[in-house]
Amino acid sequence: MPLDEKLLNRDPERVARMFTEISPRYDLLNRILSAGLDGPWRKTTVAMARPQGARRILDLASGTGDLAFEFLKVKAFQGVVIGLDFSDAMVQRARRKAAKAKVSNRAQFRSGDALSIPEPDGYFDLVSVGFGVRNFADLEKGLLEAHRVLAPGGRLVVLEFFRKDENPAIRFYMDHILPRLGRWISRSPSAYAYLRRTKKGFLSPDEFVALLHSLGFSPVVLKTLTMGIAHAIVATKPPLPRPEETP
Ligand SMILES: C[S@@+](CC[C@H](N)C(=O)[O-])C[C@H]1O[C@@H](n2cnc3c(N)ncnc32)[C@H](O)[C@@H]1O
Question: How close is the Cα of 16 to the center of ligand 1, in Å?
């Protein structure tokens, strides 16, 4: 397989293995490689999701749980967050963090595949995915699963790195510093080269918005974060028509 294809390979077993490998240093890497920006990005994403009043939130590709935990910081949100990830090592870390913060009753983490969610239709008020959709082996399938498990009127919220023209300083950082620093701290030879390749090979923010519309979400709201390094998106599953609106 040519190098580029190998690095873009989203084979689920390979992706799970890669995240398992970097799981012990994943949180530290996030803080260092984003220069602390991932925290404010998560906060903005959660604010856009408006979790107040939600009873059940599903955090897909939940990793060590940082996006899930961010929902619990919203005082008016009194429901539960269920995190789903197919790397057991990530799930164990998230559970340990929940226990340490004494929030295990409201933040539960399970092993599972985002492309085949083990819950009935319409079960969640909100579905979130932080830096996860770029890794899905089948993006449309993952987004349709999120749509399926959302209640009518529910929202999908996505925080992600999309393909985007970058200013020269950001491009230099992403091309040369991030992969080296990532390799050095994570001790994984390929994980942060994979991040770079998948960002370059992913959809643009506008293409992702168009895809969400084509899958039945409306409206879809896009927010650019820190000069376009990341984006947050909120996509609504339309509510059921009121009885008088049905023919
Ligand atoms: C970059 S990490 C993001 C973790 C976390 N959401 C965050 O914001 O830090 C991506 C995570 O997605 C998980 N993942 C990728 N594809 C998945 C899938 N189809 N089902 C479940 N988890 C998946 C990986 O195991 C990994 O933990």
Answer: 8
- Is 132 a pocket residue for ligand 1 (Cβ < 6 Å)? yes
- Phi, psi for 169 (deg, rounded to 5): -70, -45
The pTM (predicted TM-score) of the whole model is 0.92
- Å from CA of 114 to ligand 1 middle: 9
Query: Which atom of ligand 1 is the closest one to the Cα of 23?
Result: 27
**What number does CATH give the domain 3-162+203-238?**
3.40.50.150
Question: What is the residue with the minimal CA distance to atom 1 of ligand 1?
Answer: 131
CA 68/CA 60 separation, integer angstroms: 9
Query: Which pLDDT score, from 0 to 100, does residue 102 have?
Result: 98
Which residue lies with its CA nearest to atom 27 of ligand 1?
63
Read off the pLDDT of residues 114-126 as tens digits, 9 standing for 90 and up: 999 999 999 999 9
How many angstroms separate the alpha carbon of residue 136 from the centre of ligand 1? 8
Report pLDDT digits (tens) over 9-38. 678 998 999 889 889 988 988 888 888 899
- Distance between CA atoms of 235 and 229, rounded to whole angstroms? 20
Close Cβ partners of 43 (under 8 Å, ≥ 6 residues apart)? 70, 73
Tokens of 111: 């092993």
Q: Please give the angle made by the CA atoms of 113, 118 and 120, to the nearest 5 degrees.
A: 140
Nearest residue (CA) to ligand 1, atom 12: 61
Distance (angstroms) between ligand 1 centre and the Cα of 168 equals 29
Q: What is the DSSP string of 53-74?
A: T-SEEEEET-TTSHHHHHHHT-
Domain ranges of the chain: 3-162+203-238
Give CA torsion, residues 116, 134, 233, 141, to 10 deg.
-30
